[in-house]
């Protein structure tokens, strides 16, 4: 018999686009799919995310999944709280989109071309801390709303630029709005940016197996596992001024053979110690240890007190 799966999603254009990708892959694997839209407090409120709380976009979906109202939940991985949900299992991390941030500026300008005093909108303390550290004299202003609303502030002339995740723009077919894809040396993305998390109930082993075998991408999972372990060790949530990016790189082992390893870079904005950076390389099979090790290095440098709550 064909498995029937109810996939839960937020109702935003971005969430629906992401869920559509997952639904088609599962349909190709022989499942019959129903898409169920779940409204979340994050969608209903326009207050700064810091004031609404952890998991504003994801808790309602998780509750619907645990309550058997849906069988699968699709999240933007970076929006998930770091604390695991004991009712659920992360069945798949699909192949990740480009994780970098993107500048969408007026008149086709790049970061370096924006004159001092230019206004750049972002609701993310991570992006704000890294933008300010560039020393370009940019004025960072708070920003919320869906991708269209954010881009609209540049077209209307209200802001000179906004910074958004490239992945979101790609999934919405809006890569045309990007005037510069930011180098991770200047702007490390949020841990797990560009990745999706596909969850099911912990005891739903057949569904877990179907989702894992259809959608899971080993390299993407290793990378985001390292990035999220870093975030968790810093006891920081998706709204902390913390960036992390892991890349799978080729390395040589003791016998000179090529092996795949994981390279992890991290950045933390602090109230008194400025922007701190650390990095390390480890085995792809020890992603969590690598994340914790880079976090320890950041803590040693003085990241213990992270500045402000917020994304
Ligand atoms: N915090 C909102 C959010 N959550 C996921 C994405 C899209 C990119 C992704 O999948 O990481 C965005 C928008 C953005 O940061 O521009």
TrEMBL record:
**UniProt KW DNA repair keyword:** no
Residues annotated as domain Porphobilinogen deaminase N-terminal: 5-208
Q: Known PROSITE patterns for this protein?
A: PORPHOBILINOGEN_DEAM (PS00533)
Kindly list the cofactors needed. dipyrromethane
Residues the record lists as S-(dipyrrolylmethanemethyl)cysteine modifications: 238
Return the Pfam families for the record: Porphobil_deam, Porphobil_deamC
Location of the Porphobilinogen deaminase C-terminal domain: 223-299
- What highest taxon heads this organism's lineage? Bacteria
Q: Which Gene3D superfamilies match?
A: Periplasmic binding protein-like II, Porphobilinogen deaminase, C-terminal domain
Record text on cofactor binding: Binds 1 dipyrromethane group covalently.
Q: Which UniProt keywords apply?
A: Porphyrin biosynthesis, Transferase
**InterPro entries referenced in this protein's UniProt entry, alphabetically:** HemC (IPR000860), Porphobilin_deaminase_cofac_BS (IPR022419), Porphobilin_deaminase_N (IPR022417), Porphobilinogen_deaminase_C (IPR022418), Porphobilinogen_deaminase_C_sf (IPR036803)
MF terms from GO for this chain are: hydroxymethylbilane synthase activity
Q: What is its EC number?
A: 2.5.1.61
Q: What else is known?
A: The porphobilinogen subunits are added to the dipyrromethane group.
- Which NCBIfam families does the record associate with it? hemC
Please describe what this protein does: Tetrapolymerization of the monopyrrole PBG into the hydroxymethylbilane pre-uroporphyrinogen in several discrete steps.
Subunit structure comment from the entry: Monomer.
- In Swiss-Prot or TrEMBL terms, this protein is called Porphobilinogen deaminase
